Amino acid sequence: MGGRRGRLVDAMIQYGGTGGGGGPQGEKAVAFAPAFVSIWATGADPAHDGLFRLLALKPDGHGGWTALDQLVDPFPDSTKEGATARMAREFGIQKTDIEGCPLATEAWASLETFLGEAPVVALDAGSIGSWAQALGGNRRRLVLGLEQLALLLIPGRLATRRADLLQVLLPSGHDTHKGARGNTPEALVVALAELMGRFLGQNPAIVALALGGLTRALHGLRATDSQAARQLEFALDLLDRPSVWALSTGGLFNMPPSLRDGCLEDTPDAEDDLSSLLADLPPAAAATPQQWRQHEEVPPVSLAVTPSHPDDEARLDELFEVHLPSLLVAEQGGQPQDYYRRSQHEVAQQVAQTLGRDELLLVHAPTGTGKTLSYILPAILWARRHKVRVAVATYTRALQEQAMDREVPRALSALARSGDLEETRISVLKGRENYLCFRSLKVAVPDADGDASSWLAWTSLALFGLTDPDGDLDRFPRRPALLGESNSQMRATVSQMLHAVRARSGCCSAAHDKDTCCATLAARKAARSHVVITNQALALARPEMFRHVIFDECEHLHSVAHGTWSHRVGFASMRETLLRLHRPGKGRSNRPLDVLERKLPLDSGARKELQGALQQWDAATHCLHTLEQGATNFDHWRREAERSRPPREHHALFREYVEGDGGEDLLAARLGATGALNRLESGLERLLEVVAALELKGFGRIHRTVDLVRADLVELMGHLVAWLPEKDGQPSLSQRVFHDVTCQKGGALELAAQLLLPDEQLGRMYYPSLACGVFLSATTCLAGGFAPAMAYLGLDRTQEPSADGEQPGRDVRVFSAPEVFDYSRVLVGLPRDVPAPQDRHAHRNYVSEVIEWLGTRTRGRMLVLFTSLADVRAVGEALAPSFAQRQIPLWYQGMPGIGKEELADLFRERTDSVLLGVDTFWYGADFPGETLEYLLIARLPYGVPDSYHHAQCAAIGEKDQRKRVYMPRALAKMRQGFGRLMRRTSDRGCVLILDPRICGPRHRVFLSELPVVANPMVAEDEQAGLARVVRGDSRQVLHECLAHMDMLADVQRRRLGTDFEPSGPVSTIPTTPAPPPPIEPRALTLQEAPKPMDIPIDDLPF
Hints:
Blueprint: H1 3-11, E1 35-41, E2 51-59, E3 65-71, H2 85-91, H3 95-98, H4 104-115, E4 120-122, H5 125-134, E5 143-145, H6 146-153, H7 165-169, H8 185-200, H9 204-224, H10 226-240, H11 274-279, H12 287-292, H13 310-332, H14 342-354, E6 360-364, H15 371-386, E7 390-394, H16 397-417, E8 426-428, H17 438-443, H18 452-467, H19 487-501, H20 511-514, H21 518-527, E9 531-535, H22 536-541, E10 548-552, H23 557-564, E11 567-570, H24 571-579, H25 592-599, H26 605-642, H27 653-658, H28 663-692, H29 699-723, E12 726-727, E13 730-731, E14 737-743, E15 749-755, H30 758-766, E16 772-777, H31 787-793, H32 795-799, E17 812-816, E18 826-831, H33 840-858, E19 862-865, H34 869-885, E20 890-892, H35 900-909, E21 914-917, H36 919-922, E22 934-937, H37 947-956, H38 958-978, E23 989-993, H39 1004-1008, E24 1028-1032, H40 1034-1044, H41 1048-1053
Parallel strand pairs: 1-4, 4-5, 6-16, 6-17, 7-9, 7-10, 8-9, 10-16, 18-23, 18-24, 19-21, 19-22, 20-21, 22-23
Antiparallel strand pairs: 1-2, 2-3, 11-15, 12-13, 14-15
Helix pairs in contact: 1-9, 6-8, 9-10, 9-18, 13-14, 13-16, 14-15, 15-16, 18-19, 23-30, 24-26, 25-29, 26-28, 28-29, 31-38, 33-34, 37-38
């Protein structure tokens, strides 16, 4: 028996039933054969929903199966219909099917008898546990969810696909229902076999590495977390002994050849060094670029380009009129005319006319246009013909993946249907830190005595890097695969490990390291692509790489430019950077300089270099402390000065201080800090060169850690120089930058150098460098015209010749596509008794009450948009226990262990859930169908007028700042937030705006931007296609919402009240009837110069 087999045998315990102890050391304990269980219910809340079918399957020990299939009466005490519409629609269960069936408690008792002591495999382990607890079942039974096993064995995109994980794993042609009724024990057996087969069918070295890491994690878990240890033991036994379950196929499926008993015994010995195993394995991302190397790089610009070719224009029309509709008919059924979108076609024509011309195009593409295909297809045709790279720059990484995963395959399929089989190369490119650095992963192997969470995190990342085709860490799931007492530690360890293995600028300088660095590999693919899907920040930061750019969700360019071309650094992060090198006073510190101090010979040259580096570390620490003291002195002076100055003048205090008596000392401290950091960085470089010759064990990890710190030191010095620049020994603050010291939460100080006017920088400097540019959004037409967006994006500045006459004005065309959706399917509720947002505590409590009351009755299907992350976390943490009790998943931005992109996937894949979010979810998130039926906007998205805001006002005037920046940003955000509800023509739902100010005249501009019947007195024919507005108290508005969605009967059947009563004080803001609709503005013509939007000062909240 091999080493690994022995290690696994030693670790196994008997995990059935109540999980008793194992047998003698080295002797395999006898485990119970697993059972497969599926439950069908009207919802996820045992307190209010009904269980109506139980299905189970377990091996009979003779090559066959024993089955349980029990229908249940879900609502025995109800005089209403027993089978809800959802039961019939999603599961095919009718009223007659459940007449005379046993109650849920009786059926569950039968299930417990059927299962005996067997552990269970289910689609969702949490759901089984909740129903068992509610119905008196065995709460200690060991249950593993299919998703947990996917997270453990194939940690990547597959593991995050909760809703359709079962269907994705079922082999092609397997006869099963799709959707909810596909959750059967038979399907679980087949899916588990497929999952295990995929894992074991990989390169044996990958399997060996994974099992070595999991085995070491198991030993640690047995001492620290028995619950997680039992789950891991169960998973490994399922893998090692498929004869107990998979060989009893009964004709369910063809056994994957890799699935056989004793597979672990054939893997290399677990005592082998996992580092050497990994050293011989390339990342999966290294395979694809080898295929791309045969192609030459596609240049970003060419002098030979021309506008769209007539043949391409004809092909484009054919694609939208014929091939896209027929493709969608094949996918979804219906008739071709059901899928033709005139607005989408017209936008595509406009994009095609712009590519190759020396002009910019600003497009208003209302929600539902399908704008991704409208620019992807003309970009492909033009880029291939001219052999020039075209970039598509989105706002978020989620939008990048949405375009690549959903729309690009559809575009290529449409081209193939048209007979166009020419090779098209399309890739995604993100910032370097979004990718896995394989060199870093190799040196991050935990020590042999490392804790269980370190081994689990590293093994999961290693598996991810060896199997994910891009090494894109946005696809790496953060959730622990095992559930137990150490979950919080597991999440923290994953976060730390991710930081250690992310690619960085200059992280891999050697040729062989570049060949396995996923960031470098992604850049090589992008350089050879016709179309590159990237993000706006990268497009702005790499103008030499992207000259023909299509900006999707372009209203974010202003804020993205601000973030890309600004600098911020806090003293806490600077101290942490230094502490990653050396931690004085800690006994057995694992910091690289401390490890070298223990290992290097006392009389060696390397020891002298180390002593020099430690002295430079001390000097850098002292200089940063001096600089922090200087910043603190300024902060004290500022607080005193603010007492006699109005808030709108506070922005000028740093400049006044620097140009006055305090500037000399502050600049001296800054120069001292940058000098000390520069000497430390150079000393570290010399130290690495000397130590490398000694070939110390573990030097690879030390080298990598020091390299990362050196890169951070260089970046840190750049931030400091930008914060307080000098010329001829004197401070030299730029008029285009807002220099300041900001005070963060908890009193920590941060040094900031923020670009003051991003629209000016975009319009005067960036856009002139583009060969051509297309700007698309659903919010480019505001207040009846394009002027606000032109100003906010700086496009009006591009139209004007430069002051020195060196740059002539640039043509900017505008185009507005027609509306797509029928908004009469939407009800907009405006409750007037909401507490004033200025009373933050009362307003937050009210919002929480509405979410809990409505979410309980609708079983989720709700997105709540906030303007403050602190509010999201406070409300999410407060509501989590309540929703957990009801088994309605509640996701909120900032919750531990789950990233923003993963939150969107979780919400999309779990229909009955609630999601609370801030900025990311106001824009671009796509949740069609029943996933989102109730959209709550917690408050109007006004920005907070801080010192940066007032600095802008001082630079260009308060009125211009309001017209060019403040109001366009707020109105665009409101429009985008509202647009999250309707994502396809069949969608319907309710929008609740929980800010009483929108009912008053000072803030009516927000309501006028929405497709609603703002004034009930308008003629009926003018209301066509517009949403109905309901004003009144909360009880009336929420009752109307339930009625609009035909939910009143269902709520009453579940014995939940239909009348909402807020517990706190009502609004103190008086409300007035809505004003008559404004006069319809004259449409902006293509030749007409944009004019500024005039918003009265009284319409602002400050």
